[in-house]
C-alpha cells in the first residue's frame, strides 16, 4: 500500500491559505542559498517541495496536492539558529534542519528507521511554481540551501524524485550543532522556551511540529525537546529551580 497523493482538483486548483506569515526581517539571501540557486536546474512541472518543519503544519503556500512520506538517510535536528522567524539577532531561536550520517562511518541501510525523516511534499501549481519558490527562498533565507531529495511513501512503493528540499548544513552561519553544548536537548529547550521572533513564539513552532508529526509516526528528538519544555514549565509553575527551571537556565 502506498501513501496516496492527495489532490485538490486540477493542477491549478489551489488549497485555501491561512493568514500569511509575517515578513521576515530584511536580509539578503544567504550565501548557501544563493550558491545552490546558481546551480539549480530550471523548474519544470510538476514541482514538488518537501517540508519537514513548519511547512508541514503551516505551509502558507499555494499547492495542488500533498504526499506524505520520508527521506533517507537524514535526521531532523533543532540545530539551526533562527533570527528572522522564531527569534531575533539578539536572542536567536532554534528551528529544524537535517543532518546526515557522519563521513567515514558505516553505511546506513535504506531500511534503517533511525535515519528517516517523515514529512509532507507539496505539489505547486504549474503556472505559479517559479514565483512561489521565490517566496519560499525568502522564507528559508536563514542559512538554508536548496537540494533535491526522493520522498518514499510510508507504505512502500516508488518514491517521488527530484523533490526540492531546504537544508542548513554545518557550513552555514546559522548552524548550531558543532559542540555537545549546542546539541544538548535541555539547553535547546531552554532557548525555545523563551525565544520569540517575527513569526511568533519558538515554543509554538516546536509544539505544533510535534503535534503534526503525530500522524506521521512522531520523531524522538522533537518529542524529547517537548518533554524538556514541559518540565521547565512545571518547574517554573511550582517555583522550583534547577537544571531545567527558570532560574537554573540551561
Description:
By secondary structure, the chain is α+β, with helices and mostly antiparallel strands. Helices cover 28% and strands 23% of the residues. It contains seven helices and ten strands. A hairpin with a 2-residue loop joins strand 9 and strand 10. Helix 5 crosses helix 7 and helix 6 crosses helix 7. The C terminus is likely disordered.
Topology summary:
Blueprint: E1 5-7, H1 31-39, E2 48-51, H2 54-57, E3 65-71, E4 75-82, E5 93-99, E6 117-123, H3 129-139, E7 145-153, E8 160-167, H4 180-183, H5 185-194, E9 196-197, E10 200-201, H6 202-213, H7 220-238
Helix pairs in contact: 5-7, 6-7
Features:
250 residues, alpha+beta, six-stranded antiparallel β-sheet, two-stranded antiparallel ribbon
CA radius of gyration is: 18 Å
Sheet having the most strands? 6 strands, antiparallel
Question: What low-confidence regions span 5 or more consecutive residues with pLDDT below 50?
Answer: 8-14, 16-27, 243-250
Number of helices: 7
Distance between the termini: 45 Å
Question: What is the mean predicted local confidence, pLDDT?
Answer: 86
Task: Give helix % range.
Answer: 25-40%
In percent, how much strand structure appears in the residues?
Answer: 15-25%
How many beta-strand runs? 10
The arrangement of helices and strands along the chain is: EHEHEEEEHEEHHEEHH
Structural class: alpha+beta
Q: What is the molecular shape?
A: globular
